[in-house]
Design brief:
Elements lengths: L1 H5 L3 H4 L2 H8 L2 H39 L2 H7 L1 H58 L4 E11 L8 E9 L4 E7 L8 H4 L1 E6 L20 E10 L5 E11 L2 E8 L5 H20 L19
Helix pairs in contact: 4-6
Length: 294
């Protein structure tokens, strides 16, 4: 649900709390929900105890302002008892209101967790399935763009695509501009990282791309998860127009194993462009020439 709301709104997508939520795995979120539930039980226990205490004081105050006790203690003491009754009555109402609001907030969070999990699974998988079905796409996933691209200053979650053509494979960082991958080509904002820069200029070098790029792929295991192990990041180093850039990507949809898979596929796609030899095993080779529409 949160992804459906924020994916096409860049200002929301770069919000630190939105990124924090998407960065958590399903296990992280489940443990957070359980922790919130336990905390709610503890707070409710103390709130109920204070409510019982206030009711006890209110009962004692009522006894002080009525009957024989009021006559024995005097009018002045009885008036104090009336103040205590009023104060404790107000306090009891505060405790009840607080407990009701807290319970509603906790249940709203539980419902949000379940609905968000279902929506995120359906929408994200649908988009990735439609993207991978295209002839010029080898891999597609959702991950966190951390930084490093010269035209994209804000970190956020994006769709990442490995595609292009066999002679010119490229990585596409896609900022969805609509709530459907079907309209992705028309409404999305796309940032390209060409694995091998190829120009069709008849002579010399096409200065649109500058000098050919060199790539270095590396994995970094940093930023430990709160609940388990480390999170693996994919670092892509490349030279473009005489400058060196390092794009960092992390929090892949399927975890650390998918990060390793992307590294392997990037190396194989680049090797296939150089040697024209298909990698061993299940592999989707791209067309030699780029199609007109993605």
């Amino acid at each position: 649900m949160l992804w459906a709301i924020t994916m096409s709104k860049h200002r929301l997508s770069i919000n630190r709390w939105v990124r924090w939520w998407f960065r958590m795995t399903v296990l992280d979120r489940f443990i957070l929900v359980v922790a919130v539930g336990i905390l709610h039980i503890i707070i409710s226990f103390f709130t109920f105890s204070l409510w019982i205490f206030s009711k006890l004081i209110q009962t004692i105050g009522a006894a002080m302002t009525s009957g024989l006790a009021a006559e024995l203690m005097g009018e002045k003491t009885a008036s104090k008892g009336g103040f205590i009754i009023g104060f404790m009555d107000f306090t009891s109402g505060v405790f009840i209101t607080f407990e009701v609001i807290l319970t509603l907030a906790v249940w709203a969070f539980f419902i949000f967790f379940i609905v968000d999990l279902i929506f995120d699974f359906i929408i994200t998988r649908r988009d990735l399935r439609e993207l991978r079905a295209k002839a010029n796409v080898i891999l597609a996933t959702r991950c966190e763009y951390i930084g490093g691209h010269p035209r994209l200053p804000h970190g956020r979650f994006v769709y990442l695509i490995l595609g292009g053509s066999r002679n010119d494979p490229e990585i596409s960082i896609i900022l969805p501009g609509s709530k459907s991958a079907v309209a992705l080509a028309k409404s999305a904002v796309e940032f390209l990282l060409p694995l091998i820069e190829v120009t069709e200029a008849k002579s010399g070098i096409d200065m649109k791309f500058g000098t050919p790029s060199g790539f270095n792929f590396s994995l970094t295991s940093i930023t430990p998860s709160i609940w388990k192990g480390n999170r693996t990041f994919l670092n892509i180093e490349y030279n473009s127009v005489g400058r060196k850039y390092t794009v960092e990507l992390g929090s892949f949809l399927k975890g650390n194993d998918e990060v390793q898979q992307w590294k392997n596929f990037l190396i194989c796609a680049r090797a296939e462009a150089d040697t024209e030899e298909k990698p061993f095993g299940p592999w989707k080779s791209l067309a030699k020439k780029r199609s007109k529409a993605k």
